[in-house]
Write a sequence for this structure.
């Protein structure tokens, strides 16, 4: 679908992408973690896109199996949600992924 | 207002009350913390009450200054959100509050 192609293009062209919701504390945690790591993700707030928001969320589920936010991609690779991202950070792996993706 | 009286009655008659949303991970964290402490809060899922949900959320904001979920009460006292509740737990104060409220 065209929306699916849009998502693939987005994650392919941006080192770090976070699909988020503005009111969601888990989304806020992930955004603030990247900020602390001096990374500027492309943030897509699904609640600010009108009817396209839920459509995007369905496409993301089709592409990644994940229907929740935040939904994080680094170097075009699906990372996961908040818990997954924080886990990788604590293992020291997040920063290597970010360097490999030239995110910083 | 009548809704305000309902809330006051609810928090007055139940040792632990959590105003929550079913999709929210912060709300889930608070509910799971109480479960681990062997406490059965009265949980009110604001997203499952149709138009009354947002109305209740406004009443809670008027009563507590807090417009977010989760919104936690123990022994009729406003505790706060997820971060506040977890903070009290780590300080060892949550369990005293729960005992005092005969929550367990
Ligand atoms: N363990 C996941 C939890 C993700 C989750 O449950 N996200 C919620 C919001 S906190 C969600 O997307 N709920 C459904 C929705 O908002 O559409 C993570 O760490 O990201
Ligand atoms: N620090 C607060 C954060 C509360 C918060 O921002 N809650 C969000 C959901 S995670 C919220 O209620 N957003 C507005 C809404 O859902 O109506 C806490 O620990 O509870
Ligand atoms: S909506 Fe509350 S943590 Fe995501």
């Amino acid at each position: 679908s065209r929306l699916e192609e849009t998502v693939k293009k987005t994650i392919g062209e941006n080192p770090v992408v976070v699909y988020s919701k503005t009111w969601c504390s888990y989304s806020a945690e992930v955004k603030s973690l990247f900020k602390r790591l001096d990374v500027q993700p492309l943030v897509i707030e699904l609640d600010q896109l009108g009817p396209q928001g839920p459509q995007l969320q369905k496409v993301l589920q089709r592409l990644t199996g994940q229907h929740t936010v935040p939904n994080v991609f680094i170097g075009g690779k699906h990372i996961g949600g908040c818990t997954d991202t924080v886990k990788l950070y604590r293992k020291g792996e997040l920063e290597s992924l970010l360097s490999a993706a030239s995110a910083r």
Observations:
- The pocket of FE2/S2 (inorganic) cluster (ligand 3) is lined by residues A 24-26; B 24-26 (CB under 6 Å).
